[in-house]
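pls design
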């Protein structure tokens, strides 16, 4: 972790809190770029458009996120809400990319 970024429990000023949040947000955006790269790969690999929406896989991801949130002490309902949106956004992106590649 950056020496300038304090652990949340060690923050004593809002400047430190904001620097920490900004650092986390930069990392999240980088991870989202990587995650959506995998959505692009899926759109390239899947044989047909109907394969894009996979409810079994969605349930599997949500189950894994729930277990990870529980293990880390993160509010499981919060994680589920965030991931529901992320998964649906990912599916929409993958469908658009699937169509773009085949047009």
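designed seq:
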């Amino acid at each position: 972790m950056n020496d300038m970024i304090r652990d949340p429990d060690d923050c004593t000023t809002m400047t430190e809190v904001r620097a920490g949040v900004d650092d986390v947000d930069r990392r999240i955006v980088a991870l989202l770029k990587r995650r959506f790269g995998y959505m692009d790969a899926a759109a390239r690999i899947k044989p047909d458009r109907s394969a894009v929406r996979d409810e079994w896989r969605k349930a599997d991801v949500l189950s894994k996120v729930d277990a990870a949130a529980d293990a880390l002490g993160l509010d499981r309902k919060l994680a589920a809400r965030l991931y529901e949106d992320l998964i649906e956004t990912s599916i929409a992106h993958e469908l658009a990319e699937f169509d773009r590649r085949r047009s």
